[in-house]
Each structure stands twice: as C-alpha cells, then as structure tokens.
Amino acid sequence: MVIAGRACDTAIYTTVALMRGHDRALATHMAKIIECASLCCDPGGRDSIIATLDGEGFTLDCMNPDRHASPTSVAAHALYEQGDPFTVREPAGELDLSHAKYDALDQHRVRVSGATWRDMKPSLKLEAAAPAGFRCAFFAGTSDPRVIEADREIWAEVRKVVAGLAGQDAENLLRARFYGLNGVVNWPTGPAVLPREIGILVECVAPTREVAKSVITVTKQYFLHHGFPDASRPPAISPFPSRRRSLRLDRPGGSRFTMSCRCPTRRNSRHCSRSLTRISERSGRSKVVRLCWERNRYSEVSDECCIRQSGPGPYRDHRHGAAQ
Q1: Nearest to 98, CA basis, from 107, 108, 106, 88
Q2: Which of 37, 86, 109, 246 has the smallest C-beta neighbourhood within 10 Å, fewest atoms?
Q3: pLDDT value at position 261?
Q4: 184 — alpha (psi -120 to 50), left (phi > 0) or beta?
Q5: Are 229 and 273 in contact, with CB atoms under 8 Å apart?
C-alpha cells in the first residue's frame, strides 16, 4: 500500500515502480507524465493512459483512441508546471531530462527513454494560509460603448463616492475586473479596438461579513447608476445574471484566505509571498521553517535566512483542520 498526499503527485506511481526494482529516473519521468492522465496527448484530455515500464524506458498508450501520444506532445509536457523543461525537482533529488528521447512506435504510442537522476539532500516545501477577511461580490455586464471606453474613470469615481459614504477604508477594500479589457491581465493601455461587450466583476474583501455586504451594496447602486456629464441617457449596465444579487465567494460564509508564507525549495533563493522579498540562502539548501503562535499572531522564523513576519492567524493544516 502506498499513501501519498497532494504534496508530491508523482509519489504514488514512482513508489510502486521503485518497490519492484525499476530505475528511479525512468520511474519518476513516467510518473511525472501519467499523473496528468492523457494531458500529454494530442489533443490533450483527462482520459486514462497506460505506461509500460521496463529496464530501458517506458511506453505510453492512451485508452482513448481519439487521443494520440506523439513525440512532440509528450516532450511538450515537460513544460507543464515547470520553469525548466529539462529539470524536475523532487523531494529526494532532481530528474534530468536533457538527454531524454521520445520515439513514435506508431500513430498512437510513444516510447520514452534517456532520463537520469541526481540524488540530493531531502527537502521540504512549506506553504501556509491565513484568513484575509470576508468577500462579497456582484457581476454585471455592458455593451454601452461609453462605459467600455471610460471604464477606468468610472470605476475611480465610484470608489471615491463609496469611500465617502461607507468610510475611507471602503475604497481600499474594493476591486473590479473588467473582463474583455483587463480582467485577466492588467494591461497598462486599452486595446486598439474596443470590444462590443464586457463582463464586470466587483468584489469587496473586508474584516467582517457585515462590512463586506454593506460596502458592496453601496457600490452596486452607484456603479450601476453612474451618471455622465451628458445626461441624455443613463449608462446601459446589465446587472445580476442570477437571482442572488450579491455573492459570497470562496468558502461557505464568504471567508477568504491568502498565502501567509510560501517557502518553496530552490537552489539559490527563497521567496516569501507576503513580504515579496527574495533572500539568498547561504548554504544553497532549504531548512524547515518554524511557525510560532503567540499572542494571537503567528511568527515565521527561518534558521537559514531569518525571515520574520506576522499575520492575523495561525497556520492551519487543511487536511486535519488543526492549528499547527
């Protein structure tokens, strides 16, 4: 029996192969591919895939006859969730794919070989989440060219009005995404050709549910009824694609969490998401980060690079629900 959590997706497949005496490099390379099912095929999908492993390599055979493993599609999978397509970092070492070979057996199957393994000191990747408040939101849409052209100006005016009515902090609690303009990427300039219509997601993250709801209620009214200098007609913004006019997002009750610390194992550096500071490691290897809970706050202390930071709550292990 193999018990492995989501901390290492390749573990469940690699371990079985190692227990039966197979090469670690080939077993890990195989596991890295098949843990994503048929994503390595053309077209990619989530169908079952069979890997047949032997002493010199492994063969990939998708169970869906319409998805084919090709040398290009399988080799391209090395870019999935990887910054370096030739190096895969695992807790016990590194998988080197710089000499990997991908040979087509036919139009459906691929033979893979050539990966090598480098043993390294065991390492840990530590991540933690802390409460960031409660979130309330509404979604709207518009095809009014005046609104689409002046989205930034309209939103800036609405935030100022809401801050005056709901309190100065309300302006800092609000955020809007204009899908079709800057919903995915916050582009510094607008598109050369404006879209015919856009979707608008407005959200508020506040310390309490009551504050989040009250701020989003005020925002909704002034945003949807924003007036132009030319009052010949109001802006055409269509709200509420569902009956519930404001949505509590994320978890039950609207709780929102943020990364309170993220210290991934790296060769030369460590990154803490809250402080946004990159600190070089002196020894070139990671050490376990201690999270200490004291006086209703947690402190994170690293023996290696002396990172300290504070947050609103303790590290909570999401698997067991117990404070650590």
Answers
A1: 88
A2: 86
A3: 60
A4: alpha
A5: no
Residue 122: what pLDDT? Answer: 84
0.70 exceeded by the pTM? Answer: no
- Write out residues in the chain with pLDDT < 50, as ranges: 243-244, 250-253, 264-324
122: buried, middle or exposed (CB in 10 Å: 19+, 13-18, 0-12)?
A: exposed
Q: What is the CA radius of gyration of the chain?
A: 26
> What does 59-120 look like in DSSP terms, one character per residue?
EEEESSTTSB--HHHHHHGGGTT-SSTTEEEETTEEEE-TT-EEEESSSSEEEEE--EEEE-
Which token pair is 97?
């794919």
Q: From the centroid of its chain, how far is CA 216?
A: 26
Alpha-carbon gap, residue 48 to 82, rounded angstroms: 22
Burial 157-185 (b: 16+ CB within 10 A, else e): ebbebbbeebeeebbebbebbbebbbeee
Tens-digit pLDDT profile for residues 46-77: 999 999 999 999 999 999 999 999 999 999 99
pLDDT for position 42: 95
DSSP state of 289: E
Residue 102: both structure tokens together = 């991908």
Token digits of residue 50: 């069979």
Quote the pLDDT of residue 266. Answer: 40
Side by side, the strands of the sheet bearing 93-96 are: 87-90, 93-96, 116-119
In DSSP terms, which residues pair with 87 in a beta bridge? 96
Residue pair 72/85 in contact (Cβ under 8 Å)? The answer is no
Determine phi and psi for 14, rounding to 5 degrees: -65, -40
Q: Which two tokens stand for residue 277?
A: 């500071």
**pLDDT given for residue 186 in this prediction:** 85
